[in-house]
Amino acid sequence: MWIEIAHFATIAALLVALTQIAAPLVGITLGRPVWIRVGRQAAFTSAALLTLACAGLILSFLKHDFSVAYVADHASLDLPIFYLATAMWGGHEGSLLLWAWFLSLFIAFAAWRHWRTHPLSIPYVLAILGTVLAGFLLLVIFLSSPFERMLPPPPDGRDLNPLLQDPGMVFHPPFLYMGYVGFGIPYAFAMAALLTGRVEEEWILATRRWTLFSWAMLTTGIVFGAYWAYYELGWGGYWAWDPVENASFMPWLTATAFLHSVMVQERRQLFKTWNLFLITTTFALSLLGTFLVRSGVLSSVHAFANDPGRGVYILVFMAVLLLFSFGLLVAKADSLKVEARLESPLSRESAFLFNNLFLLVATATVLLGTLYPLAIETLTEAKVSVGSPYYNKVFIPIMLGLLLLMGVGPVIPWRRVDRTRLLRALLVPTLAGIGATALALGMGIAHPYGVATAALIGFVAVSHGRDFIAALRARTGRSGDSILLAPFRLIGRNKRRYGGFVVHVGILVMAAGFIGSGLFQEEQDLLMKVGDSTTLGRWRLTFTGIGQVSRHNWDAVEASFVVEGPGGQLLLKPQKRQYHRNDMPTTEAAIHSTWREDLYIVLGDRVDDRWAIRCYRNPLIVWIWWGAGLMALGVVVSLGQGRGLKRRDS
Amino acid sequence: MKSTWKIALLATVMGILTLFYLGLGVDTRYIPSPLLDKPAFPFSAEGLDGKGPVVLEAKPGKWVLVNFWGSWCVSCVAEHPYLMELARKTRDRSDFAMIGVDFRDTREGGLRFLSRHGDPGYRHAFDPEQRIAIDWGVYGAPESFLVDPQGTIRLKRAGPLYPGWFEQEAMPLIQGMPP
Amino acid sequence: MTAKKRRALLLVTLVVVGGALLALVVTSFTGSLVYFYTPTEIAAQSAGLAGKKIRIGGMVQEGSLHKEPGSLKIRFLVTDGTTQLPVRYEGMVPDLFREGQGVVVEGVWPTEGDFPAGTILAKHSEDYVPIEMSQEGIAKSKQSLMKSLQ
After folding, report:
1. What pLDDT, on the 0 to 100 scale, is given for residue C126?
2. Hey, which end of chain B has fewer CB within 10 Å, N or C?
3. Of B23, B77, B116, the CB nearest to A374
4. What is the pLDDT of residue C149?
5. pLDDT tens digit string along A7-53?
6. Minimal CA separation from B26 to chain C, in Å
7. Whole-Å CA distances, C135 to A145, A594, B104
8. To which H or E segment does residue A568 belong?
């Protein structure tokens, strides 16, 4: 019953989305604003209809309606209620519906928010986003429907893949999709700017918060994915550079480039075409991330081979959107007049330029590594894979380069700076960098990348800190604010700049985590019987027992380890879990986290009277999660600032 | 923007799209089945219906689709409507036949499955001890094999057959080699 | 420095940094490709592979898995139905590794002896139900059927 309501709501939403494409365009052609208003109402209506559709699908899950094929495939009677509700996006049919729902909500919000402020752009924005929405809904309704019935119903469902029964995986897709979808709004405004010929800074200012918000969502989504991989997959790492991860990382890289280069356009009216290119690419890569991963060209082809028509449709849809967007960009690019020029290699805009260069090379690196195996396999008979060594070799130098720019960029002025002033600004941070190097060497870090990262962290932290303190001094001197309130007042005065600082600090924390866990991980593979002990770093592990545990939807073999460490004794219990409805055993690592390092124990197979045990010492890994938290906080601060074109920010 | 850049940009976009187009049919994780192009193991087993043995001969003389299933398998329920449709569509063909193998199952369970989800009309071998399934290297359900008239396995599919499978994958082979 | 010189300097820096980055990408890339072979393909061209990192895919031959007592060392045959290839490995195997299952092993092709796998990737298909759950599956279905009838 509910599923039919959901199905009809989705079909209705498709019709409404088609209206949302046609009505505003008719309105512009005829010069009749009332038609444009129809488009706006359509946006609200489709958001409401798709909300109903999602609710219908979730209700079918909650009611264990296994006559719905999608429910039967992704849930079971045993599934806990939390996972039951979130199983809605456990498969690709449902997640496409979720995507479409987010898009419709964002369109409605944009139509409400920008209606008065951007009357010229809004018809185009509605039409373009309506097209994207209609494209998705066609896919959901005709080729990838979560609404199909399976009669007679099976008595119980196949259950959600046990690996997906984890909080990290529950939140990963929605955040990722909010990020992907969110970039659609700046993209649509960019296209509208090209179509109306108003390609000045207007579209960037209008969508600044959308961009920031989407970037934050994408960042959070990616980190949730990494967190899930770390806690659930049991291989001691969090990022494997597989095509699915890469697909979400590419738009993040171009979006980060975009976040920085729009500032150059705001302040110096430079990089106009470049910014249009970046946002179009970001959205294109977001679509690529959703489609090609979900449809399986890049990964397993299972879902895909079932229905080759779906692949062709997705490809045609992508082709139409990409050719329209990039074609429009190419056709209209010459109308962008750039009066200003880059003046000097020593200027903030040039720091942004290099930042963009590094990020673009990073994107190209991932794109190459992801597409090359597909190309080789398609064009020749050979099969090839590109492993993580490639990415690590390229990405560590790129990260170091970006850190260096991050230390310089915010503290040098626009246009140009003379050398003495620059040296004076960078002297103390450089000294701090040298200090950090000495500290790192003193702590026994020998790897050149480890030392370089430590040096750059010192450099960036001090360059940011000094800038903040200087501004603080000026402020307390001028206004006589109290020392306690002044920092908050200062941040409040320029949320955008200092929000950015917080994000940068988050990145520093994360960089420490990457390098610490990447270069200094220790691993032991052992066979232990009850009573055996081993030493790993500062920890002494004693295998004290093995037993059986059960929950309502799984049974597990559980090992007990008494671990003696600096903080006293603790008990860690890694498991090997067998979910009832699935043949795949899953590994539940036992993890003890401290700020210094994680102790990570995985239980393997039984070999005679002993058990295979793998344990890791992962230094600084929690810094990655904390860094991500700081980044999110920074964006929240930054979002607090409304629009303001000529606001001084240094 | 200089025209070289414009061309480079559009060429890159076109290149990637072309690659995806060409890549549509390629399964990057596909590993060829060990049994492909090997002679099938002939069998003669008790029928699920109890009406005498179900036989696959060494040289069947026509194309035979052998479908492994069990009443315990939810994906088999999903696949079943297509099998019914395929059986109906190919009933009059003299060059094509279907055989089901109900394995690791109880007779009661298998028969109830057919009465609940429909009887496609062809016969099923009953293989509770998985003798046939082990011979054929089946490690899950559903799994389907297409055997040619000379008794060679020409196609294997792990997982449900999809609507259109027969036309897209089986027909080209069948047309290329009349019995 | 004049404005013109500054611009020239900017351009030169850009080209140098960009060039260095591209060189980094290209050199890392060519060294990191791992080709995938089946045992039969290996048999045909093993001479040229020595010292190269490769992946080999197939099935773990039934009855070939040999565990060395008291250690994590194992030996097994990877087969594609025509050719078998002996592989040795030391360490914990993935959850899905077992005889008769698909497997991909990665390692450096040796000049002699068994293939020493550095990594084992077990393959599985989510799309269909593996046999092992059947008995339990039947019992479960019965239970829930009874529940839904009540």
Report:
1. 36
2. C
3. B23
4. 37
5. 999 999 999 999 999 999 999 999 888 999 999 999 999 999 999 99
6. 15
7. 32, 44, 8
8. strand A568-572
Cα–Cα distance, A250 to A99 (Å, whole number): 18
Question: Which residue in A386, A401, A525 is closest to C91 by CB distance?
Answer: A525
Q: What is the pLDDT of residues A367-415, one digit of tens each?
A: 998 888 878 877 776 777 787 788 988 999 999 999 999 998 888 888 8
Residues B163/B79, Cβ–Cβ less than 8 Å: no
Residues on chain C touching B156 (C-beta within 8 angstroms): none
**B18 inside domain:** no
The token pair at B56 is: 């696959």
Is some CB atom of chain C closer than 8 A to the CB atom of B162? no
What is the percent of chain A with per-residue pLDDT over 70, rounded to a whole number? 94
Which of B104, B158, B160 lies nearest to residue C134, judging by beta carbons? B104
- Reply yes or no on whether the pLDDT at A120 is more than 80: yes
Query: Chain C: which residues have CB within 8 Å of chain B?
Result: 38, 57-59, 79-82, 100-102, 104, 123, 125, 127-131, 133-135, 137-138, 141
A476 interfacial to chain C (CB closer than 8 Å): no
Nearest neighbour of C32 by CB, restricted to A350, A382, A390:
A390
Residue of C nearest to B74 (CA): C129
Which residues in chain C are contacts of A343 at CB distance < 8 A?
3, 6-7
- List A522's β-bridge partners, or say none: A617
- The verdict on C82 touching A (C-beta cutoff 8 Å) is no
Please give the residue range of the domain that contains residue C45.
32-122
Q: Give contacts of C35 with chain A, Cβ < 8 Å.
A: 382-384
Domain range holding B45?
A: 34-176
- Within 8 A by CB and 6+ apart from A113, the residues are none
Separation in Å, CA A102 to CA A54, A68, A74, B102: 10, 23, 21, 45
Determine the length of chain A: 650
Q: Do C6 and A344 touch (CB under 8 A)?
A: yes
Contacts of A610 in chain C (CB under 8 A): 70
Q: Residues A126-182: pLDDT tens digits?
A: 999 999 999 999 999 988 889 988 776 777 777 777 777 888 778 888 999 999 999
**Rounded CA gap, A304 and C131, in Å?**
24
A273 and B1: CB-CB below 8 Å? Answer: yes
Q: State mean pLDDT over A84-93.
A: 87
The Cα-based distances of A311 to A101, A305, A561, A566, B24 in angstroms read 22, 9, 49, 55, 7
ipTM (interface predicted TM): 0.78
Residue in chain A lying closest to B78 (CA): A150
Distance from C-alpha of B17 to C-alpha of A375, rounded to nearest angstrom: 11
Q: Are the C-beta atoms of A582 and A481 separated by less than 8 Å? A: no
Domains held by chain C: number: 1
The rounded percent of chain A whose pLDDT value lies above 90 is 48
Contact B162 A383 (CB under 8 A): no
Residues of B in contact with C42 (CB under 8 A): none
C142 lies in some domain: no
Comparing CB atoms, the residue among B32, B73, B109 nearest residue C129 is B73
- Answer yes or no: is B55 within a domain: yes
Taking only the tens place, the pLDDT of each residue in A101-110 is 999 999 999 9
Supply the CATH number for residue B70's domain.
Answer: 3.40.30.10
The stretch A248-257 carries a mean pLDDT of 95
Best-predicted range by mean pLDDT (A525-534, A628-637, B23-32, C87-96): A628-637
The number of CA neighbours under 13 Å toward the Cβ of A51 is: 9
Give alpha helix (H) positions in A380-418: 388-408
Task: Report the CATH number at residue C102.
Answer: 2.40.50.140
Q: How many domains, chain B? A: 1
CB pair distance less than 8 Å for A305 and B27: yes
Residue B143 with chain C: CB contacts under 8 Å = 128
- pTM metric for this prediction: 0.82
